[in-house]
Amino acid sequence: MPREKRQKPVWYKLDNAAMMYSAIQKENYSAIYRFSAVMTELVDPEALQRAIDKTLPRFPGFRVRIKRGAFWYYFEPNGAPGPFVKEDMKNPCQPVRFGEDDGWLIRFFYYGHRISLEVFHALADGAGSLTLLRTLLAVYLRELGHDIPNTDGVLDIDEPPPREEQEDAYFRYAKSRVRKGMGDRRAYQGNGTPEPFYTLNVTMGLVPLDKLRETARGYGASVTEYLAAVLIEAILAKQRREGRRRELPVALAVPINLRPHFPSKTLRNFILTVRPSIDPELGDYTFPEIVAQVHHHMRLHISRQEMQAVITRNVMLQKNRLLQIVPAPLKNLAMAVSYKIAGCRPYSTTFTNPGAFQVPAVMEPHIQRMEVILGQSYTPRANCASLSFGNTMEITFAGTVKESEVERDFFRHLVREGIHVKVISNREE
């Protein structure tokens, strides 16, 4: 009787960004982010669980656990039951631990009208996770009896997932020679007083998108550029109040979705960051000058040629033969040190704006607004993120620090510009 062929185990290599997020993982830190949909009706958790069970097989890149090999981390399919939807908690985006919760690297929560998805950043960037959430919301509404089409970014859960959705797009677009060197200057960190583990202070501001666009347009800027300038101004003011003898540049890490520049259907990570900054040692800047500086920096550095050079540099490091044979623990230590130097020191904080959350028109009446939270930073400071739905832009500050003067100055600036802000926070005060 012929011997049956043993099937090769299915596993996935980590992309370039995922390798870094996995290497810097600690007991008290994970690169976690959250997207939430605030629905018009109270959430039915049983219908939501059915929707999760039906939707996730269409997204195999999220149905994985992470394993450490001799030289690299890798993903393998997670055959454990779940993940199971849970009632929400006060402190979101808590660290994952690779050996706990059956190895799941995604979480689903509900509370009142809110449905939340939390993702370990090694799995996917915001664009990939929003595709998952959009499709899940469509399936959930179908479970409630609504007819929702597979359009406007809602994927068909009855179709097999195409291989393109799992491609490592960094590898695809890395060139053989062109590289961009490292060396951004150290930026003002603005770290605050750490809260007890694990306390994530979240402050959300809800603003009318049309008024925000109008104000940004008055400065000749996009909404992202305008909000980045407001954030830089608030951090500059914080540094000035500290009375430092020598002030450092204030710089933001602004993630850029690469898919519009390098066509790819990947649902994995495919982002790079740009670094708009202001150096107060050069003199005082008016707010219009800050906006102009941010605007021109973003337009100059978001170019196909420069971004491809950065992709190539990062992938070449990953392909380095000497690095490949270094044992995983030593490699992770080296990458963690590198992240602290090149991933934290050149930036004062992160600001991300995934843009507008689009859904089929028949879904719109079922959603009040969308929310986004970047989990704790690698150092004790607050991150900032924004997301819009309809005419509401939601802007979130989240961090494990006691102080809140940056977010206060940020929202006060918007109010001075005539933009109404409704503030929601989980702080005790």
What is the element layout, followed by pairings?
Elements: E1 12-13, H1 16-23, E2 32-39, H2 45-55, E3 64-68, E4 73-77, E5 86-87, E6 106-111, E7 114-120, H3 126-143, H4 169-173, E8 201-208, H5 209-218, H6 223-241, E9 250-257, E10 271-274, E11 277-278, H7 287-301, H8 304-319, H9 321-324, H10 328-344, E12 349-352, E13 367-374, E14 383-389, E15 392-399, H11 405-416, E16 422-425
Parallel strand pairs: 5-6, 9-12, 12-14
Antiparallel strand pairs: 1-4, 2-7, 2-13, 3-4, 6-7, 8-15, 8-16, 9-10, 9-11, 14-15
Helix pairs in contact: 2-3, 5-6, 6-7, 6-11
Describe the protein.
The protein has 429 residues and is of the alpha+beta class. The chain folds into two domains: 12-156 and 163-173, Chloramphenicol Acetyltransferase, CATH 3.30.559.10; 201-425, Nonribosomal peptide synthetase, condensation domain (Chloramphenicol Acetyltransferase, 2-Layer Sandwich), CATH 3.30.559. 31% of the residues lie in helices and 21% in strands. It is built from eleven helices and 16 strands. It has helices at 16-23, 45-55, 126-143, 169-173, 209-218, 223-241, 287-301, 304-319, 321-324, 328-344, 405-416, and strands at residues 12-13, 32-39, 64-68, 73-77, 86-87, 106-111, 114-120, 201-208, 250-257, 271-274, 277-278, 349-352, 367-374, 383-389, 392-399, 422-425. The strands form three sheets. Strands 8, 9, 10, 11, 12, 14, 15 and 16 form an eight-stranded mixed beta sheet that branches. β6 and β7 form a beta hairpin. α2 packs across α3 and α6 (223-241) packs across α7 (287-301). The longest helix is centred in the middle third of the chain and has 19 residues, at 223-241. The protein is globular. The N and C termini lie far apart (74 Å). The relative contact order is 0.18. Mean pLDDT is 90; it is low at 1-7. This is Alcohol acetyltransferase.
